[in-house]
Design goal:
The chain has six helices and seven strands; from the N terminus they run H-E-H-H-E-E-H-E-E-H-H-E-E. It has about 210 residues and is α+β, with helices and mostly antiparallel strands. The chain has a single domain, classed as Histidine kinase-like ATPase, C-terminal domain (Heat Shock Protein 90, 2-Layer Sandwich), CATH 3.30.565.10. The structure holds adenosine-5'-triphosphate (ATP) and magnesium ion.
């Protein structure tokens, strides 16, 4: 309605840019879940080195970790190989690590550990953040479920308040189509650990 300063326009454009990014991510997630429901998402299986994949996931979130001065500690033995869909496993661990960073306080620690146990790759993502109360844990993998509902519609820069509650349902779907499973352990005020098991061999894969 009236001319503004360059700084004002820049600020507005940055905000618009961030909003577009958020909406694009949301639409992609919704599309993925909708297609998954109709079994329209084929797995692109290949031999994957899980430690390399996790190292890439960690480096893709390095900036987010730095912004909160969170130390990401990883224990990734080099020999963890499996047949899996690279893009989908990346998405799975990005969602878990993103949460660990988002729901932890500044200057805390997040740990990612991979091991091999009885023909299964096991990955633990732990934080010492705010934790999740038992009554919420049972609903955590449901679509659109967020613990702090009152704040979920806010669009403030406080990142723990932003999100659509789809990350974990996507994570669970990815684990399931790989024939694996995901569990969560948490204590309010102490932190949360997500554990993912993935079979190494392709024969265990199920569609669904
Ligand atoms: P997005 O769709 O952007 O991932 P989201 O992070 O809110 O949004 P989910 O990743 O599905 O959605 O997580 C669901 C809810 O579980 C979160 O809103 C949060 O309340 C809780 N949660 C998830 N991970 C953690 C964690 N590591 N520590 C504490 N709470 C968590
Ligand atoms: Mg999330």
């Amino acid at each position: 309605m009236r001319p503004r300063s360059v700084a004002d326009y820049q600020e507005t454009l940055v905000m618009v840019d961030q909003t577009v990014d958020r909406l694009t991510a949301l639409v992609e997630e919704l599309l993925l879940l909708a297609r998954a429901e109709n079994n329209q998402v084929p797995l692109q299986l290949e031999q994957i080195n899980l430690s390399e994949l996790l190292a890439e996931v960690i480096s893709s979130l390095e900036l987010a970790a730095q912004r909160k001065q969170i130390k990401v500690i990883s224990q990734l033995p080099p020999e963890v190989e499996l047949m899996a869909d690279y893009g989908k496993l990346s998405r799975l661990f990005i969602n878990l690590l993103e949460n660990a960073l988002k729901y932890s306080s500044a200057r805390s620690q997040v740990t990612i550990q991979a091991t091999l146990e009885h023909g299964q790759a096991k990955v633990e993502v732990s934080d010492n953040g705010q934790g999740i109360a038992p009554e919420h844990l049972v609903h955590l993998f449901e679509r659109f479920y967020r613990v702090d509902k009152a704040r979920s519609r806010q669009t403030t820069p406080d990142e723990s308040s932003s999100g659509s509650g789809l990350g974990l349902s996507i994570a669970e779907w990815i684990v399931t189509v790989h024939g694996g499973r995901i569990t969560v352990q948490s204590e309010v005020g102490h932190g949360t650990t997500f554990t993912v098991w993935l079979p190494q061999a392709r024969s265990n894969l199920s569609l669904g």
